[in-house]
Design the sequence.
């Protein structure tokens, strides 16, 4: 495994303070050195957290799943496909025209469609392969800077019967109305004013239209001081976001190589799931509100990008 490159800095200046009644200087202890994580130097042959804090079980190893991994040098239609179902009650219109590979990155773009109802033209990309636990998948992604959910998730089934693990759903630029805390009751269940740095991870298990759901909303501000992406918004930098699907009831999320919340279900995940990315919007503040239509004509803010995706199975040595 490659040796992780790190940047070191330390504060070693002794601070002296003078007291008017005592001429003796008070010596301060030097600050502890902080080891900065170099996110560009993580070992790409294993999950990112292995380079930072390897918690892989001693009798297990990570085996790359090539069918669900890609550096996106080109579009590979043996690995990926588009789906075209649209979210109900939204202005979303899915088309393969709004996704592809460009400059070594998968992109999904939102553009303005000439339709009074379905005006948010966008795309959804799936993996053709499916996978079950124990496994780990992660991607390096940067969001579009519009009021829309930029997603990376696992799913199989339909709205009434499915297993779903939402690794990240981020809206980096919710509308001013949704950000305005003064209009929200004290028990308002969503926090769109925190969305720019919030991860919004959750799961769903639906059986015969009865749905179990829970979330674990980590935030880039919760990362360690050693992490260069601490506090950065999702449109500001590429973030490495992933999920260790441990077993039939437990998923550990990761953000930039650090643990980022965990979910434990009340019933079992039973399906093999596929990787999905999409970009979509909705008028309600639980998503962040609708973007301005003119923003969809601005290519500098209307596109989410994925630099790479890597997936592994956890297997016995």
Sequence:
């Amino acid at each position: 495994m490659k040796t992780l490159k790190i940047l070191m800095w330390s504060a070693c200046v002794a601070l002296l303070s003078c007291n008017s009644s005592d001429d003796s200087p008070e010596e301060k202890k030097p600050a502890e050195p902080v080891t900065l994580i170099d996110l560009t130097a993580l070992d790409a042959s294993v999950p990112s957290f292995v380079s930072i804090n390897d918690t892989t079980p001693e009798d297990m190893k990570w085996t790359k799943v090539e069918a669900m991994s890609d550096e996106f040098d080109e579009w590979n239609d043996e690995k990926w496909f588009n789906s075209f179902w649209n979210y109900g009650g939204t202005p979303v219109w899915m088309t393969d025209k709004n996704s592809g590979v460009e400059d070594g990155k998968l992109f999904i773009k939102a553009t303005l469609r000439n339709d009074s109802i379905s005006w948010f033209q966008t795309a959804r990309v799936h993996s053709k392969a499916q996978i079950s636990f124990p496994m780990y998948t992660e991607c390096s992604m940067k969001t579009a800077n519009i009021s829309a959910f930029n997603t990376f998730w696992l799913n199989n089934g339909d709205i009434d019967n499915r297993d779903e693990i939402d690794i990240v759903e981020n809206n980096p630029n919710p509308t001013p109305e949704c950000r305005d805390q003064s209009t929200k009751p004290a028990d308002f269940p969503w926090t769109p004013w925190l969305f720019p740095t919030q991860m919004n991870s959750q799961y769903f298990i639906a059986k015969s239209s009865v749905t179990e759901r829970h979330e674990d909303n980590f935030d880039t501000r919760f990362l360690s001081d050693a992490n260069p992406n601490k506090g950065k918004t999702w449109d500001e930098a590429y973030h490495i976001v992933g999920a260790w699907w441990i077993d039939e009831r437990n998923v550990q999320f990761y953000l930039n190589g650090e643990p980022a919340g965990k979910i434990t279900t009340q019933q079992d995940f039973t399906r093999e799931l596929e990787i999905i990315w999409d970009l979509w919007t909705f008028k309600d503040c639980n998503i962040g509100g609708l973007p301005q239509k003119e923003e969809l004509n601005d290519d500098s803010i209307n596109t989410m990008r994925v630099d790479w995706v890597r997936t592994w199975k956890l297997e016995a040595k």
User: Anything to note?
Assistant: Residues 1-25 have pLDDT under 50 and may be disordered. The chain has one domain: 45-316. DSSP finds two helices and 22 strands in the chain. The radius of gyration is 22 Å.
